[in-house]
Hints:
Chain A is mainly α.
Amino acid sequence: MNDRERDIDCEKVQQRLFELRDGTLGPAEIERVQAHLKACERCRATQAWDARLGELLREDDSSISPAGFLSGVRGRVRRHQLRAIAIRFAAAAAILLGLGLAQWQPWKAAREDEPIAKLPEQPPASIPTDNLLELAVLAEPPPVDSFEVLDRQQRGYVTVMRRLGEE
Amino acid sequence: VENANDLLRRCQRGDEEALARLVAMYSERVIRLARRVLGDAGQADEATADAFAKVWSKARQWRGDAEAGTWVYRIAYHAILDHRRRKRWFWVSPPADLVDPKPGPFEQSARSEAVEKSRQRVQDAITKLSEQERALVHLYYFDQLKLAEIGSIVGLTRDVLKMRLARARQKLREMLGDEDLE
């Protein structure tokens, strides 16, 4: 085995060490790795180094007290719930606004207000003066639509009749 | 004995008491991971609180395909990395010294000086790894999780995970020297 082949093999074996600890290698593979470890001092050193690193890290005996920590979590959960409610309200408001706009359609109403075409101006009605019958029609009092006007009109007639009687 | 799967199912139904129990069950592990990755005790506490708030809000997404503990850890891992990115977005903080929760004077005297020195060297070296590598080192060496579980937490295939772990180990060995760790 030359150095290069040995390096490749070592690289593979050093990756297999993770699985060896895991217990996920098959029996044949375990045998191959063990045989390599027996013969290769460098890989044995890596295996020992791995074990020592794990021990050193696990020697971390500092205390962690998550006692007051739950209130922080609860505060965040509350904020999350409030945000969810606010989002629901905003979504409902947006839907209502959309529906309202769809019903109202102000852009359509504005168009309807615009005149489609100008109506031609009516020519002034000519008053026929040579036809007596038509003159009699014109002499009739115009239709009134107010009681006050009607009252004044009636009082005027009475006054005229009185004066005619006096004469 | 309460089962984490049952607790997570109760969280899905909006049971806050179940969340409190999940927090009690996993917070220490999550805080340690957060401290390892973030290197700051205050930030680690915040990130862990964020992580459990996410566990609560995402509980309904859990379909039972992974163990509840693995799922909680996965949410926590991503929350911790998100926390790091968010902090970076706001300000560039100086490289954090890994807190590796410092022992008190009494604890320190109880340990041999050599071991303490080695521990400190290891912590310093871990600080120089990428955030993902720090997490991988913690999950594999400290938590002693199986590769399948680590892969599920960080979202890597087995082969990629082995490569990254091997690379992290190689970097640490280069920084710490090849001699045995005392």
